[in-house]
Amino acid sequence: MTDWISAPAGPLRGELRVPGDKSISHRAIMLAALAAGTTRIKGFLEGEDTIATARAFAGMGVRIEALQSSERIVHGVGLYGLHEPDAAVDCGNAGTGLRLLAGLLAGQQFDSTLTGDESLSRRPMRRVIDPLARMGAKIYAREGGLPPLQICGKRTLCGIDYALPVASAQVKSAILLAGLYARGETFVHEPHPTRDYTERMLSAFGWPMEFGAGWAKLSGGHRMRATDIVVPADFSSAAFFLVAATVVPDSELLLRDVGVNPRRTGLLHVLRAMGADIRATNARESGGEPVADLIVRHAPLHGIDVPIEHVADMIDEFPILFIAAAAAQGSTRVLGAAELRVKESDRIAVMAQGLRALGIDVAETPDGAVIEGGELTRAEVDSAGDHRCAMSFAVAGVIARGPVRIRDCANVATSFPGFVELANTCGFGLDLA
User: Fold this and answer.
1) Taking a C-beta distance cutoff of 8 angstroms, is the pair 412, 19 a contact?
2) What is the percent of the chain with per-residue pLDDT over 90, rounded to a whole number?
């Protein structure tokens, strides 16, 4: 295991570009593989999760070239051109990769097995398996719907009209990808709008799509055409620096080329409601996705009740929000985030336990927490192998009264390779233990 020491830091300064968006990188590889022709992907995230997805498609007969870092050239094989893999498809730590592949592979003419690391093997997949079964898929899992998933090929899929019981972009995307192979129309409704990366990218590859806030619809029987993709900088990765510069006095950072898809940036609204000084400039589009440069300056924060309408748009950012709440004056209340219990870790429990060790009062609820802002002390905390929790505790260390030791940080490489080096270029005091 890899441990970090995060030491108190002075002002954070500089101009950064964080790695490419993980969610978009996954989808770019998948759709490029199924398109007719050659797609060039720029800004591809060189993380373990996304590399696992590229490796999965290479194992199914797709030629993928990596001529230089953060670029891929994908020679698409068309919707029905994948070959049966020689072994189980290893998704590593990638819940996105496994769930989306479950939908995509449900429509193939061959059997397949999806597996992952120890963490991924504890994540429930019933919410994906059940709607896919309604479409005609046959998928076997361990008790409780846990991976590995054994997917039977040569099934006839039919489109469904499905209302998601819990808002999830991954589940929605799995159903839509299965819908590419289904007879008739697939219509997905959400209780709250989630990120629409799959819908936007399907449209960019030429698949007829209809979608809006909280719904998406497509029909089978079409084809995709290759198109070049530029992956914006990952908002979830930028979020650690947005909070760090906000809570460290006299800080100012410029974050370049950040993806600001409105279904992804709930944290921006919440931080601004808490008093943060974050300004978006140079707004533009890149590959169908909205992009901007973000300027963040130190500002005192105050606790709030996090508006429920922003929860689905910031589900990956809650660990770092917990740190912002710990640095704020007063109480911050989070509700409606039960999804956090079944991410790479139980993120509510992991963050609550770590913050208590740092001297912060936290009361857990089944779907959130109440965090009372205060002064952070030196301590040892356990990230439970969760990359987002590890990086969040690294931010806590820069404002604590003494060094913070963070245990089990190796999985940061799944989403943010080079985090330690980049953080230290702008003023963090972060080192390997």
Assistant:
1) no
2) 87
The answer to whether residues 206 and 309 belong to one domain is no
pLDDT in tens, 379-409: 999 999 999 999 999 999 999 999 999 999 9
Confidence (pTM): 0.86
- Residues tagged active-site: 316
Same domain, 317 and 412: yes
How many domains, the chain? 2
Same domain, 108 and 174: yes
pLDDT tens digits for 329-359?
999 999 998 888 877 789 999 999 999 999 9
Confidence of residue 287 (pLDDT cuts 50, 70, 90): low
Q: Are residues 10 and 96 in the same domain?
A: no
pLDDT bracket for residue 167 (50, 70, 90)? confident
